[in-house]
Amino acid sequence: MRHVASRVYSDIEESNLRRCPRSAIGMELWRKLSGQEEKMKTLGNNFEALESQAADVKTEVEGAELQTGKKRKYEVENWLRNVERMKNEVQNLEQEVRERKISLLLLGNRVDKLNAEIALLRKLCSFQGGLLLDVCATRGESLLATELIGQTVQQNLKKIWAHLMDDSEKIRIGICGMGGVGKTSQAVNIYNKLIENSKTSHHVFWCTVSKDHDYSIGKLQSDIAKCLKLDLSNEKDEKKRAAKLSQAFARRDKCVLFLDDVWDKIDLHRVGIPNGCKLILTTRSVDVCHKVGCKELKVEPLSKEEAWNLFWKKLCNGEDTTLSPEVIDIAKSVAAKCDGLPLGIITMAGSMRGVDDIREWRNVFEELKELTMGHEDMERDVLLSLEHSYSRLNDMKLKHCFLYCALYPEDWMIARNELIRYFIAERLIGRSKSLIRKFDKGHTILNKLGRSCLLEHYGDDKYAHVKMHDLIRDMALKIIEMNHHRVMVKAGVGLKEIPDQQEWAGNLEKVSLMCNNIKEIPCGQSPRCPSLSTLILKHNQLKSIASSFFKHMHALQVLDLSDNSEIKVLPNSVSDLVKLTGLLLARCTSLTYVPPLGKLRALEELDLSFTGIEEVPQGVGMLVNLKNLNMEGTEKLEKIPCGTLSKLSHLQCLGLQCRLRPVKIQAEELEELTKLEEFNVHLDDVHSFNRIVKFLQHQEVPLGKYFLQLGDSNFEYFECKSYSKAISWMGEYYITKGREEDVSFLPYDLEALTISDQWFTSDYFCDVFPSFWGNARHLQFCAINNCRGIEGILSACSSSTSLSSPRNEEEIEVDDDQIQESHNAPFQSVEILMLSHLQDLRGLITSRKLGRLGFGVTAPHGTFSNLRKLGISFCDKMNSVFTPGLQLPHLEEITVKFCDEIKDIFDHEGVGTISSRNSHDNLTKLHKVWLSSSLLEFESICQGMGIRFFRNNHNMPFILPKLKKLQLESLPKLESICEGMMVCSSIEEIHVSRCPKLKRLPFVLPLDNNGQASAPMTLKEINVHRDWWESLEWGPPNVKAVLQPFLRFDKIWEVKTIGQ
């Protein structure tokens, strides 16, 4: 950086100052240049220091992860990500300086901004709360399990568990048996049981080994390393990789490794699995158990009675089901035909669910008899029973969608949305005009296949991924094979070269070569496949494709080259694939050239997301049938040529959001896209932003999904992007109440809002968009970061009752719970609220004066009533967090960190003050007041007026029924969580760090049968400093002892309070 700066400035000096060395202009220019050079040198020094810090943090966190089995905190991961982003920005600036693409004025501004951001990153590097999440936060996720039936199964489970609990025993267990018999189900059951055990949960690992993968020591090492959160990507030597894996296991006490679906012998020593690691594997081969040295536990098929019980349970599916005795007899015979294999039983029962016609049952049984006649192999029989479930799908398109899943590799976690995009491109989903309806139809299809037990829901979110059992995939491939060889599937089999020419049969319709190691398609390769409609080459290592390859593929409709990160040029022959409906190039990060696309008039989806293109491919404006254009993450793309978007009259989905810089577009063109249903875009001017928001607001049919970003991405809240309708502002914009040149609109259906680096001209956040907060019924997520001018999120008296006018009332009741009611209170729908670096913020709800007589009151009834998660950090003017009277029935997590002035979490003194002592003349007939504890100052104002007070009793415990986590960190003035007691029946985690003035935990503990205090059943961990814990003041004498088993002591930090 310093070298570049010096050289560039020298060049500028020679080329400019030589011409006017003694002029005043020349001297002034020289002074400016000299100053900028110093700034650039400072920038270089600052960034080098930041890089050194990042290297230290990365080394420390990786070592700690290996040693403890814990996971790094999200703030650490985000900080490292921001350092990497900063590296890119500094390098980009360096390149612009070298190529003289930046003016002197802009250079100074950019350098100042980068220096400021680097300074902030260096300041945030302290991570005083530690680098790692707590044990319970790193606990592995349970796997989807099926219910286990059978006496032998239960005996096996007991044996395995007993071996695992014996620390003195070296454990290697092989669960073996034929396909579909339930080997994996038993292993999953044990795995989940270990995960639920707090002593073992962070040392249990699951790795699937499939026959169709490029099975090698290196592949297995990489898969296991991924489970251990160990990065082996830069280590190619097998022995060194094994040593690192072995060390990672050795650092973890009582490790258990599950290897599922092992087909061949594994040399554990070569892989790096040490003797001290307990191993459980599943395999169809007894020989594998013997060769690996495992104790063999064979899983036998279910007995006839067990098989029937499982069949009946899955047939009824939890509902009352009545069948005639004759039908039940036939059903038992059908169940028996599944040969005791749970997979076949479950699948067959699912396909017959809801059938009560005896004729249909008889027909099924006769078909099964014919199918299985002459077969002796039980596994083949279950394949045939699975095939019968397929044949019962009463819709041919449903069958095609099912078979399409077999194009993926074995054990592949298939993203539902990606699969549905294929269905749409293949015309497997009806020609609905609406994209949203097409996706609804796609999800309906996948749900039907799931209910038929032909697909499994996979992962935490059952609506995110599906998976095909390997035996069911075998059946699907068998059906495809019988279909005249019109499909070639070689997905995930480790291919390093494209299949030979003779393998490309002339009648091929679909080819899947995804997830291999193919690096090039050489010249001379030109398969003659005139009927080929689908070609999937995603997830390879392609660097080049010969133009001849597509020469004879004129019927091609779907071409997927996604995730080939090294390919730079798309061959020109793609321009002639005139029947293409889908061209998918996502995450081809090196791709810079796409040939002209103007002839592809049938194209409906063009995915260029996260490619390296610098300009929109020629001819895109001629794609009159284009419905989905995705250029998200194209960081080198600067603009969309004027008039391009407005020509795409059928466009339904548009993706233009980029993390580093906005793509310049004309807002007017978006307004012409009347069929648009989804879009994301990154803007850099307020006028376009306001215009697009107005466009959203006035849609007759609201858009189903949008993400709108204004300004630089900077420190991004990634949660915001997970919502369907989200807006993010980042950068230096003024936010006011009405100036046309400033941000002034928000769509009413907004679900997530992120605001960062702004200057507010109003004291209260809710004052900025009054019409929005009056109609915001859908906002769930709100994050405000590094903004100036905000003193409160909302005003306590923004809609309060004023007492300044003459009144005739004789009685007034002023109560926290009844002061205000609103059918749509501000922030009523918000579930997550994140506030950070707000240096003017005094509270969530603060009061203001109301003329001659007025007093601050609590927020409207319902405010924050759906809040689940609150995070506050670096807000140094806040005195308390929650004001009295708030109802928080759904609050699950409170995190407050690095706020120097906070004294209370729940304020017991109230927020209100009376602004005038001279306004009691308006209340001459008042003689009785019911007074809330949050309005105690009202009593002193009215002394001498003969008014009688009845004060509410607020000694009852404060109840937060769903609170699971309380984290308080670096709050030097915090004195209390709340004045009274708190009932938190769902509490799981309590973290208190560097809060020296906090002397009491206010939680009410439940009583056992003997009337003694006991720990909440949900409690998992209390993480504190030892000295602070010993200094706490306790009520009942046994409370401290009751909580002792849940303590986790942090490293003792020296805490210095103000004045020391």
UniProtKB/TrEMBL annotation:
Q: Which ranges form a coiled coil?
A: 33-103
InterPro entries on file: Apaf_helical, Leu-rich_rpt, Leu-rich_rpt_typical-subtyp, LRR_dom_sf, NB-ARC, P-loop_NTPase, Plant_NBS-LRR, WH-like_DNA-bd_sf
In terms of domain of life, where is this protein from?
Eukaryota
Q: Extract the Pfam families matched here.
A: LRR_8, NB-ARC, WHD_DRP
Q: Name one GO molecular function term.
A: ATP binding
Domain Disease resistance protein winged helix, by residue range, is 407-476
- Residue ranges constituting the NB-ARC domain according to the UniProt record: 154-317
GO annotations under biological process? defense response to virus
Keywords (alphabetical) are:
ATP-binding, Coiled coil, Leucine-rich repeat, Nucleotide-binding, Plant defense, Repeat
SUPFAM superfamilies from the entry?
L domain-like, P-loop containing nucleoside triphosphate hydrolases
Family membership noted in the UniProt record: Belongs to the disease resistance NB-LRR family.
* The protein's name: NB-ARC domain-containing protein
Q: Which organism is it from?
A: Camellia sinensis (Tea plant)
